[in-house]
């Protein structure tokens, strides 16, 4: 017998909703019933376009709807934590777009409140739910490349609308690290665990956001990792794990729209490809959230992962600002 569908409210009419609403409507585990905007007409037009029952001209009005059990928050970065806290205070479960925050203390505050209310919160790193991601991590853990020694990750694109893009606003927690570099950091952490130290360098642009960010992470296991994120470089998406006996590569790690897993043990021999089934990452993410709410499972991404992510981002920014390597212990628990 299936679970009762989660009645879902959507806070904001952000562009990313276009890939979240269709699987939410298609899944038997969810029922999108409401959407909110700060503009009532915009909310009404949006609800009509997506055939959503209810439209609200404020986020608080949606949170006051007793039928809404959970919310998906796709607001700009700086509004993630404030509206998550307000949603939790209103008794709603929360799926919040990444990055949740780069401030570890805010993660603690969010999960402390959620746990005190018996509510679920999860950070929306949809790529973690893809079968390709799971298989890649398994191959590394199983020793397909021997002992893991080095991880390299990359995510970049050339931004064409820098004057109007919200990711260019420093007061909105913009910048390449907070937008796409978060995937790179998340990928490294999945494979190597939590880093001991971080070193970061940034190239600023616009009104002071990092247009390019490069980072080095050091792990207790002697593993090292490098990543690069950029708004000024042609589109690249890569994740590579290098070990004592070979290398594993993902050529489209964050969306898995093409490629597969490439294993190379000897550069003079042809690579071996592992084809993995393709799935809708957003559907898998939403259904993981729904099952966690109904008590069928623990969410794939909970407090520990969100805290590890925030601590690493905080260390990288501090390093870039002060020009030194930063121990993660400096970032608190």
How is this structure best described in words?
There is one protein chain. This protein has helices at residues 17-26, 40-50, 59-63, 80-89, 104-117, 131-141, 176-192, 281-293, 303-322; strands spanning 6-11, 30-36, 54-56, 70-73, 93-97, 121-124, 148-158, 197-205, 209-218, 224-230, 232-243, 246-250, 261-264, 272-274, 326-327. With 333 residues, the protein is of the alpha/beta class. The protein folds into two domains: 6-124, NAD(P)-binding Rossmann-like Domain (Rossmann fold); 130-279 and 311-331, Dihydrodipicolinate Reductase, domain 2, CATH 3.30.360. It has a nine-stranded mixed β-sheet. A six-stranded parallel β-sheet has the order 3-2-1-4-5-6, sandwiched between helices. Helix 1 links the parallel strand 1 (6-11) and strand 2 (30-36). It starts with 5 loop residues before the first strand and ends in a 6-residue tail after the last strand. The relative contact order is 0.15. The model has no long low-confidence stretch (mean pLDDT 94).
């Amino acid at each position: 017998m299936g679970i009762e569908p989660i009645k879902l409210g959507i806070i904001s009419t952000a562009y990313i909703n276009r890939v979240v609403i269709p699987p939410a409507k298609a899944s038997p585990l969810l029922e999108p019933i409401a959407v909110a905007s700060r503009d009532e007409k915009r909310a009404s037009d949006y609800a009509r376009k997506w055939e959503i029952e209810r439209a609200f001209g404020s986020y608080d009005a949606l949170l006051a709807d007793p039928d809404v059990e959970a919310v998906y928050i796709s607001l700009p970065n700086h509004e993630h934590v404030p509206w998550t806290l307000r949603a939790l205070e209103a008794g709603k479960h929360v799926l919040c777009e990444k990055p949740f925050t780069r401030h570890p203390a805010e993660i603690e505050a969010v999960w402390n409140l959620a746990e005190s209310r018996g509510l679920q919160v999860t950070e929306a790193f949809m790529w973690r739910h893809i079968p390709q991601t799971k298989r890649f991590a398994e191959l590394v853990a199983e020793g397909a490349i021997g002992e893991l020694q080095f991880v390299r990750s990359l995510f970049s694109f050339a931004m064409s609308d820098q004057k109007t893009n919200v990711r260019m606003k420093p007061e909105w927690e913009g910048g390449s690290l907070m937008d796409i570099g978060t995937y790179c950091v998340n990928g490294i952490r999945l494979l190597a665990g939590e880093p001991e130290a971080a070193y970061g360098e940034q190239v600023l642009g616009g009104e002071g956001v990092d247009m390019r960010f490069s980072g080095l992470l050091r792990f207790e296991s002697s593993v090292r990792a490098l990543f690069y994120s950029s708004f000024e470089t042609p589109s690249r998406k890569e994740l590579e794990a290098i070990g004592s006996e070979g290398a594993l590569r993902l050529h489209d790690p964050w969306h898995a729209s093409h490629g597969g897993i490439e294993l190379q043990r000897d550069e003079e021999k042809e690579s071996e490809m592992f084809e993995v089934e393709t799935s809708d990452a957003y559907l898998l993410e939403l259904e993981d959230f729904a099952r966690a709410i109904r008590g069928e499972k623990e969410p794939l991404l909970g407090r520990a992962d969100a805290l590890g992510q925030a601590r690493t981002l905080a260390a990288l920014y501090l390093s870039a600002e002060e020009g030194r390597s930063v121990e993660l212990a400096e970032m608190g628990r």
